[in-house]
Amino acid sequence: MKTIEIYDPELGNRGNGCGSGSDREALRMRSMLQALTKEGKNVLRYGLIENPDVFALNKEVSEIIAKKGSGALPITVVDGEIKRTGSYPSNLDLATWMEMTQDELVVMLMKAKMSNRSFCGGDCC
């Protein structure tokens, strides 16, 4: 089974769906990773502030941050290979890396949306 790791600037309770684009992206990523986890996919998310030891243990991630600074975050690693730096992957990227079809992605997201009764339709509630 594939493993996706997201190295994030911070994991705190960023974003409530209202506010900056980066807050919305963090919220989208959190929701997507939760949906993948519910489907039994192996996804991990680390925050630089919360998990500095994990960042230090990954040589490639440490080197990127040393060269480019924290602006290189988030960093996405799939099975040990860096796939993206500086922005979150799309939902389709994540599904493709997990070897899911587009139909499987749609079904997974619909199940997640239906199980989350607090979903307000995309605008600020």
Task: Kindly describe this structure.
- By secondary structure, the protein is of the alpha+beta class.
- Helices cover 44% and strands 17% of the residues.
- It has five helices and four strands, in the order βαβααββαα.
- The protein has helices at residues 21-38, 52-57, 59-68, 91-97, 102-115; strands at 3-8, 42-47, 75-78, 81-85.
- The protein has a four-stranded mixed beta sheet.
- Strand 1, helix 1 (21-38) and strand 2 form a beta-alpha-beta unit.
- Helix 1 (21-38) crosses helix 5.
- It is globular and about 40 Å long.
- The N and C termini lie far apart (37 Å).
- The mean pLDDT is 85.
Residues in β-strands, percent = 15-25%
Q: Could you tell me the mean pLDDT?
A: 85
Strand order of the largest sheet: 2-1-3-4
How far apart are the first and last residues' alpha carbons, in Å?
37 Å
Count of helical regions: 5
| String of helices and strands | EHEHHEEHH
| CA gyration radius, whole angstroms | 15 Å
The secondary-structure class comes to alpha+beta
Task: List unreliable stretches of 5+ residues.
Answer: none
Q: Biggest sheet, open or closed, and with what strands and sense?
A: 4 strands, mixed
Helix content: 40-55%
Overall outline: globular
How many beta-strand segments? Answer: 4
